[in-house]
Amino acid sequence: MKYKRILLKLSGESLMGDKAFGIDNNRLSLYAQQIKKIHENGVEIAIVIGGGNIFRGVQAEEGGMDRSHGDYMGMLATMINSMALQAALESAGVETRLQSAIEMKAICEPFIKRKALRHLEKGRVVIFGAGTGNPFFTTDSAASLRAIELNADVILKGTRVDGIYSADPEKDPNATKYDVISFDDVYKKDLSIMDMTAFTLCKENNLPIIVFDMDTPGNLQKVLNGEQVGTIVRN
Disulfide-capable partner of 152 in 7, 53, 98, 192 (CB 3.0 to 4.6 Å)? Predict the structure, then answer.
């Protein structure tokens, strides 16, 4: 395996599958099976998942709700997704631990860095819910922060697109894909990968990001094997 410890970032929207809202059990199972395969190869896996399939703080603000209030609602949405992924992984026989940036004693542990590291060392998949626990920060920022705290080798950002393009490939047929791109070039070309706070954290801490298509079975394993899948962003 090219990477020993990874942070896998999944979008909440990806869990919808073909649905317009909520969680598609088939998509959830597909992700769990892919994660199980790399787990069986000894990779230490931490996961952060968004909540956009259920609720986004930004949409609350558009409706006149206080942004902080909406962001906390979004954090609760990430917990629903995290619990769903935890259940899918455990049904597949993978031992997990769920930690939350907001204390929820009945369903998970609070985030404690030392405990998270110990779980990883013992071969448990650790899922981090509730973002950073603070409003105005996205789950991309949470993924970058947790990856840095845990000394992860890389952030794997699983999306519906097979990498980073010069333009939106769903809208522009002439868009070209990058196999490798620097953090500086992403800034210069104004490419959208993750929010700027998260992106800057990765750049300053020399943490590479691989953007790849998580919906294609086997891609996650290929990334871990070091095959050219998706786009790698690095200094």
Answer: 7
**How far, CA to CA in Å, does 92 sit from each of 29, 114, 204?**
8, 26, 37
Domain range enclosing 204: 5-229
Q: Is residue 235 part of a domain?
A: no
- Which run of H or of E encompasses 170? none
In angstroms, what CA-CA distances link 228 with 74, 203, 221? 34, 21, 11
Specify the pLDDT at position 18.
86
Mean pLDDT across 24-48: 97
Give the Å distances, CA to CA, from 145 to 68, 69, 123, 133.
Answer: 20, 22, 21, 12
Mean pLDDT of the chain: 94
Query: Within 13 Å, how many C-alpha atoms sit on residue 7's CB side?
Result: 27
Please indicate, yes or no, if residue 53 is contained in any of the structural domains. Answer: yes
Here the CATH number for the domain that contains residue 221 is 3.40.1160.10
CA 22 centroid distance within chain: 17
- Confirm whether 92 is domain-assigned: yes
Instruction: Give the pair of three-digit tokens for residue 6.
Output: 């990874």
The answer to whether residue 234 is domain-embedded is: no
Number of domains in the chain: 1
Q: Do residues 231 and 164 touch, judged by C-beta distance below 8 A?
A: yes
At 110-162, the pLDDT tens digits run 999 999 999 999 999 999 999 999 999 999 999 999 999 999 999 999 998 89
Sheet strand arrangement including 44-49? 109-110, 96-100, 125-129, 44-49, 5-10, 154-159, 209-213, 231-234, 180-182
